[in-house]
Amino acid sequence: MLRRWMGFLLLLGVVLAVQPGQRLPEFALLDPKGNLVTPATLRKPAVIVFWASWCTVCKAEFPGLHRVAEETRVPFYVISREPKDTKEVVLEYMRAFPRFIPLLASDRDKPHEVANRFKVLGQPWTFVVDAEGKVVALFAGRAGREALLDALLLAGVELP
Fold first, then answer.
1. Is residue 82 part of a domain?
2. Does residue 160 sit within a domain?
3. CATH number for the domain including 12?
4. What is the Cα 42 distance to its own chain's centre?
5. Is residue 159 part of a domain?
6. Distance separating alpha carbons of residues 71 and 129, to the nearest angstrom
7. What angle do CA 3, 18, 21 make, to 5 degrees?
8. Which residues lie closer than 8 Å to 117 by C-beta, 6 or more apart?
9. Alpha-carbon gap, residue 49 to 147, rounded angstroms
10. Domain range for residue 81?
11. DSSP letter at 99?
């Protein structure tokens, strides 16, 4: 019964989240160098991944995502949806994934607030964005390599 309930909640979350064809919600976060990142300043196409430092699925998924980031040279922006993940925790965690661009709190936004604007209910949640800033694919849970590569093709990425 609990399993069915969890499946229903995940499905509901996917239905409520930012959908393919929609523009990214507004946000203003900082990259590790202190540069402000907004939907207008994202290098596009791009991948946005919501995660948490304690998430076991994220830990299992990140090496594969990182390989895709290395192979395609597409920017992967990672945003922790865990309010307790401090800047120090995020930057230490990301040392193992140098191709990822962690987005951190600014004086205008907090990462978990941005996750709420995307209507993200769990982690990892991955959004693939095209050059116009529209979502072309959403993965609630683990994003498989082939499905992610297909989504990048939809976003206009020329794969190697």
1. yes
2. no
3. 3.40.30.10
4. 13
5. no
6. 17
7. 125
8. 25, 26, 27
9. 15
10. 2-154
11. T
pLDDT in tens, 102-118: 999 999 999 999 999 99
* Average of per-residue pLDDT across 144-159: 95
Q: How many structural domains is the chain composed of?
A: 1
Higher model confidence: residue 98 or residue 8? 98
**Prediction pTM value:** 0.88
Whether 21 is in a domain gets the answer yes
Structure tokens at 157: 């990425």
Instruction: Mark out the alpha helices in 21-144 (DSSP H runs).
Output: 56-72, 87-94, 111-118
Contact call for residues 49 and 76 (beta carbons, < 8 A)? yes
At 28, the amino acid letter reads A
Nearest by Cα to 24 from 99, 109, 100: 109
What is the C-alpha separation between 158 and 160, in angstroms, rounded? 7
- Containing 28, the helix (H) or strand (E) segment is none
Q: In Å, what is the CA distance from 52 to each residue of 43, 55, 86, 139?
A: 23, 5, 11, 16
